[in-house]
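Sequence only, no structure available. Ideas?
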Amino acid sequence: MRYTFSFLCRAGSVGFLLLFFSSCGGYKLGPVGDPPFKTLYVEAVTNDSFAPQAVPLASSALREAFLSDGRVKLVDSSAAAEATFILHLTGYRREAASYDSDDTAKANAFEITLEGQATLNDNRKGGSTLFKDRPIRSVARLAWRDDTVSPDGRQPLAAAISSLSREAVSMTLDSW
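Reply:
I predicted one. Tokens follow.
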């Protein structure tokens, strides 16, 4: 009886390990598939939000995010590209996230929310819109302790734009 229980425990453990390692055998770290296009044109970002000076920051960050990803080559015109990515910023909010314990009317942290809509067009012959006005959103938080200075407004906006750019790259390239 004792040997039977020991045998069953060992057999169960070996079976579990075989099942565990065989289920992980097909796992691949990183993006699963390649996008159906190799070249991409990223249009200049448009802005209907009230984010201050967001267009140059967002346009630059978006291009940098696609370049650092490396799965597609960026080109200078939509005519030279197999696909075109368009980002339109639609919403911007800056809200107090926490307040100073000594002065509850004074915020010491803000949360920046940036929202937009993304469109991806296939430029090849017979191409179509791969997705249109897909919502995209990012949130960044800024906190500071120094009472003598006010926080730089571009810092949290830049963080929100960077996050939005990474989300845009994922949305465009990882869904295939």
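The first strand starts at residue 39 and ends at 42.
Hope that gets you unstuck.
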